[in-house]
Design goal:
By secondary structure, the protein is an alpha+beta fold. Among the domains are: 56 residues, SH3 type barrels; 160 residues, 2-Layer Sandwich (PX Domain); 117 residues, Up-down Bundle (Substrate Binding Domain Of Dnak, Chain:A, Domain 2), CATH 1.20.1270. It is extended. The chain has nine helices and 13 strands. Helix 7 packs antiparallel against helix 8 and helix 7 runs antiparallel to helix 9. 20% of the residues are buried. 34% of the residues lie in helices and 15% in strands. A five-stranded antiparallel β-sheet has the order 4-3-2-1-5, with no helix packed on it. One of its GO terms (cellular component) is cytoplasmic vesicle membrane. Pfam families: BAR_3_WASP_bdg (PF10456), PX (PF00787), SH3_9 (PF14604). InterPro entries: AH/BAR_dom_sf (IPR027267), PX_dom (IPR001683), PX_dom_sf (IPR036871), SH3-like_dom_sf (IPR036028), SH3_domain (IPR001452), SNX18_PX (IPR035703), SNX18_SH3 (IPR035557), Snx9_fam (IPR014536).
Length: 516
């Protein structure tokens, strides 16, 4: 008989491999044995995955009474005499000890969720040149601050990995807590969770909470030394906690994209002129430099939304329209970067803005220094300095409510932005092609009518012919205006919307780290 369970509380899945539950919902269990506070089963909607064991009640069928002994007509009333045991029979006390079962494979009975990880294979803007001819920390295994030491379980060297905990607390399941991340303990069920002396790691090693270093920080594995210059201060603003403002704000313009060559003209690229207001010294950067900077910042700041760069393009990179569009996108990106109180003061960003374009040695030194930054991963969370004193403590339930509200807002805004992007692109396509073509058809018809009147050699027809020809030209001009209109209004709006869509794409991972 299949094992069944009834959901005691609502549960909303937030990680790959989890399923949502509704109160009083019936579930089918794959196994009655929980894995460090989590069970696997199938809900009423057919979804299979993990859910907290403390959120459900396992339903066990009552033991059935043994059936009465069967009676046969040809069996004597007293039954048969028992046969003597075989010669090879031995009592249980004399039986040799059974061979122990081999230890289960790693991850039994559930494999780690997430599947095989495939890094992105993006290639753009001449990454095969000699801008840095030696390997960097970012290219080495474990350099991204996401590799953690393994702890062998105490029971006979099992394959699970654990970290000892000396506190007496509810058992912490694969998500690092006895209840799902971001969810309160079940009502009245805080004592239902089993006490445990181990804290296990997340089963999904590719989750954002693990890759960001948040899990290692919570487990106490951060060990970096925080210098005064590395501290990121959080202050109480009029609307709550916020990053401390940059005491020296600045701006940076991006102008004059020019095509340059190297290797005696064998290789071409576009360079952009950057002029930061706090130095006044112009530097030239290629798109690959922007791409490198974005990668460094996204790795270092897992709880800050780093704006996405304009999309890469493999062909047509030297077309005038594409170069102009990319420059505008980079200018929007730079404005957001300079206005952020933390990103604007980052050493990697300042190196990007101030290192002379002609000093290749200084650029490589600063680049390697940024890639060897120790304050990444779990150590990054050590750099955050929170306010103390009266009024600095926060109500956890209020924080949870605000995070959930922001999550709902960003989800709705993301859906609306996608809809607006689709509608605007479709409308722009119609203006450039459909509307222009239709007005040109009307203009062509008036032109044909004018040509017909030209066959009439009457003197009074000359003025009418000119008016009809002028009407034809006017419709042609209106078609051209329709084709050019998206460049004047929709394109700038879509460029700015694309930047915000990048932020909206970042927020789910940031919220996941916060809730973890």
């Amino acid at each position: 008989m299949a094992l069944r369970a009834r959901a005691l509380y609502d549960f909303r899945s937030e990680n790959p491999g989890e399923i949502s539950l509704r109160e009083h919902e019936m579930l089918s269990l794959c196994s009655e044995q929980d894995i460090e506070g989590w069970l696997e089963g199938v809900n009423s909607r057919g979804d299979r995955g993990l859910f907290p064991a403390s959120y459900v009640q396992v339903i066990r069928a009552p033991a059935a009474e043994p059936p009465p002994p069967a009676r046969y007509a040809n069996v004597p009333v007293g039954g048969f005499e028992p046969l003597p045991p075989p010669a090879s029979f031995k009592p249980a006390a004399q039986q040799p000890p059974a061979e122990p079962f081999p230890p289960p494979p790693a991850g039994y009975p559930f494999p780690p969720y997430g599947g095989s990880y495939q890094p992105s294979q993006g290639s753009d803007d001449d990454w095969d040149d000699d801008w840095d001819d030696s390997s960097t920390v970012a290219d080495e295994p474990g350099a991204l601050g996401s590799s953690y030491p393994d702890y062998e379980a105490a029971s006979g060297g099992a394959s699970g990995r654990y970290r000892l905990c000396t506190r007496s607390e509810p058992s912490l399941g694969p998500r690092g807590a006895g209840h799902p991340p971001g969810h309160p303990h079940p009502p009245g069920g805080g004592g239902a969770a089993k006490s445990s002396a181990t804290v296990s790691r997340n089963l999904n090693r590719f989750s954002t909470f693990v890759k960001s270093g948040g899990e290692a920080f919570v487990l106490g594995e951060a060990s970096g030394f925080v210098k005064d210059g590395d501290k990121l201060c959080v202050v109480l603003g009029p609307r709550g906690p916020e990053w401390q403002e940059n005491p020296y704000p600045f701006q940076c313009s991006i102008e004059d994209p020019t095509k340059q060559t190297k290797f005696k003209g064998m290789k071409s690229y576009i360079a952009y002129k950057l002029v930061p207001s706090h130095t006044g010294q112009q530097v030239h950067r290629r798109y690959k430099h922007f791409d490198w900077l974005y990668g460094r910042l996204a790795e270092k700041f897992p709880v800050i939304s780093v704006p996405h760069l304009p999309e890469k393009q493999a062909t047509g990179r030297f077309e005038e329209d594409f170069i102009s569009k990319r420059r505008k996108g980079l200018a929007w990106w730079m404005d957001h970067m300079c206005s952020h109180p933390v990103l604007a003061q980052c050493d990697a960003f300042q190196h990007f803005l101030t290192c002379p374009s002609t000093d290749e040695k200084a650029w490589k030194q600063g680049k390697r220094k940024a890639e060897k930054d120790e304050m990444v991963g779990a150590n990054f969370f050590l750099t955050i300095s929170v306010p103390t004193g009266p009024g600095a403590s926060l109500d956890l339930q209020e924080v949870e409510s605000q995070v959930d509200g922001f999550k709902a807002f960003t989800k709705k805004m993301d859906e609306s932005a996608l809809q607006l992007n689709h509608t605007a692109n479709e409308f722009a396509r119609k203006q450039v092609t459909g509307f222009k073509k239709e007005y040109q058809k009307v203009g062509h018809s008036f032109k044909c009518l004018s040509q017909a009147f030209e066959l009439d050699q009457q003197a009074f027809s000359a003025g009418l012919n000119q008016a009809i020809a002028f009407t034809a030209e006017a419709y042609d001009a209106i078609g051209d205006l329709f084709a050019d209109q998206p460049r004047q209004d929709l394109d700038p709006v879509m460029d700015l919307l694309a930047l915000y869509q990048g932020h909206l794409a970042n927020f789910p991972d940031i919220i996941h780290v916060q809730k973890g």
